Amino acid sequence: MEIQFLGTSAGMPTKKRNVSGIAVKRANSKAWCLVDCGEGTQHRLLYTRLSLHNLQAVLITHMHGDHCFGLPGLIATAALSGRKDPLTIIGPRQLKVFVVAAMAASELTPPFSINYRNVEELSATDLGDFKLEVTRLSHRLPSWAYGFSEKQPGWRLDVEKLELEGISPGPEWGRLQAGEDAELPDGQVLRSEDYRLRLHASRKVVIAGDNDTPALLASAVSAADVLVHEATYTQAVADRIGNAPRHSSAEMVARFAEDIGVRNLVLTHISPRYHGTGEDSIDVLENEARQFFTGPLFMANDFDRFHLAQNGAFGRLAGEGQASASPLK
């Protein structure tokens, strides 16, 4: 699985960071999903290998503008580029109202259908290459996290077991490998589930929207390989600002991740105040998080690509566009 960050800033863009947008896909697949679509996301895509023709779904975590104002423009660009396939859009009920109004006001009539699905009515569903799960979060507006799990992690035939039972290679082996039960000439029925071994565990990535209560994700991340979560401020800044913004600090997320045993933690949605040096740099957020989380920790930058291998190894791939990153070891 791969994750690519198209925007990592909170609230408004900076010279180095656009507002929220994250691509999720299976490795070596052209199909992809987009979580959040802040203003300018369609321009960010020009620096990547991602195509709007292969976009399966857009999933909006909540209705704040830095997470959804780019959606009408993205639809318009997809239309102008000649997309014909239907597009699924998942998000709060208000999202359809917003998009339909923007399209009506601008007389935008895309040559493809749009399938709107209310996140409030979802619990688990199939979405292209993934099984999708949603988790309600805590923010000023209703906000959600999206969990992406592999639907088919892959199988191999248990040849050793077949040979031990004296079952010779033949058409039955092929049916078992395909997931079908097989009947031997003597009438014995072989159940495919008894003769197939999973190649690896189903991988899972959880991408959270804005959220001031990380503990709400305890169940969602219990079997996850990666958690992507906002870390808008340091705890000192969060204490000074107060509860009104309803965001998480780096310390809050790191403490939760350590307590629950998160395997890999990626922090994003960085306040524009951390665009300088010293106390105004992203390093202060990372240093705070590392005080409380001892596992693999990553600070997301725009265009960063991450790879989740079959064996669970997780890390950065070579960067694209304006980003610089180290290849995965």
**Uncertain ranges:** 322-329
The succession of helices and strands, N to C, reads EEEHEHHEHEEEEEHHEEEEEHHEHEEE
CATH T-level fold name of the largest domain: Metallo-beta-lactamase, Chain A
Task: Compute the average pLDDT.
Answer: 93
| Sheet with most strands: strand arrangement | 6-5-4-3-2-1-18-19
Whole-angstrom Rg: 22 Å
Structural class: alpha/beta
CATH superfamily of the largest domain: Ribonuclease Z/Hydroxyacylglutathione hydrolase-like
**Strand tally:** 19
Secondary structure: helix percent: 10-25%
Instruction: Using the 3D structure, state the CATH architecture of the largest domain.
Output: 4-Layer Sandwich
How would you characterize the overall build of this protein?
With 329 residues, the protein is of the alpha/beta class. It has two domains: 2-154 and 199-316, Metallo-beta-lactamase, Chain A; 155-197, no CATH class. Helix content is 22%, strand content 25%. It has an eight-stranded mixed beta sheet with strand order 6-5-4-3-2-1-18-19. Helix 1 (41-44) links the parallel strand 3 (32-35) and strand 4 (55-59). The longest helix has 13 residues, at 93-105.
Notable features of this structure?
single chain; 329 residues; Metallo-beta-lactamase, Chain A; 2 domains; eight-stranded mixed sheet; seven-stranded mixed sheet; globular; disordered C terminus
Summarize the structure.
The chain has 329 residues and is α/β, with parallel strands linked by helices. The chain is 22% helix and 25% strand. The chain folds into 2 domains: 2-154 and 199-316, Metallo-beta-lactamase, Chain A, CATH 3.60.15; 155-197, no CATH class.
